[in-house]
């Protein structure tokens, strides 16, 4: 997935490749993975470290867990489907519980992305993977939480970290 995002980066919004550097890619499916793409190269290949960003801890509503345990497909099913709904089924439900579930997915993802912005300084975040098919259900809460979380960050307040553009590329 990161390889595909590397090749796609120059074409994001028809932008000049220099304006998409660095870029962070997340895949959100049975797990959560990702990598940083800098100068059209996958960063983990340069450093020899794997991009296990899904294992990063995040706290939502007083509960701390990994990003993956909050927003991967199985996590969404476990937390909100009560073992009766798949992620795909939850994407089609319009109940209060389903709306709350998707808002929480967006808030969690937004807060997690905000944690990476000061150190990486990415201009764009690209989110793919199977769960991103339902991004229309959580994109607004993700972007809102990203902006709110960054506004509390001193690096952002000093103008050193910009809010990255978030793009969804579902399979």
Describe the structure.
- The chain is built from eight helices and seven strands.
- With 171 residues, the protein is of the alpha/beta class.
- Strands 3-2-1-6-7 form a five-stranded mixed sheet. A two-stranded antiparallel sheet has the order 4-5.
- The model has no long low-confidence stretch (mean pLDDT 78).
User: What average pLDDT do the residues reach?
Assistant: 78
Main sheet summary: 5 strands, mixed
| Tally of individual helices | 8
Through-space gap between termini: 10 Å
Order of helices and strands: HEEEHEEHHHHEHHE
Q: Which ranges are low-confidence, i.e. pLDDT below 50, for 5 or more consecutive residues?
A: none
Physical arrangement of strands within the biggest beta sheet: 3-2-1-6-7
By secondary-structure content and strand pairing, the structural class works out as alpha/beta
Number of strands: 7
Measured on Cα atoms, how large is the radius of gyration? 16 Å
Helix content: 40-55%
Net shape: globular
Tell me the strand percentage band: 15-25%
Structural descriptors:
171 residues; alpha/beta; five-stranded mixed β-sheet; two-stranded antiparallel sheet; 19% strand
Secondary-structure map with pairings?
Elements: H1 2-8, E1 23-28, E2 32-38, E3 41-42, H2 43-47, E4 57-60, E5 63-66, H3 67-71, H4 73-80, H5 87-92, H6 96-120, E6 124-128, H7 135-151, H8 154-157, E7 165-168
Parallel strand pairs: 1-6, 6-7
Antiparallel strand pairs: 1-2, 2-3, 4-5
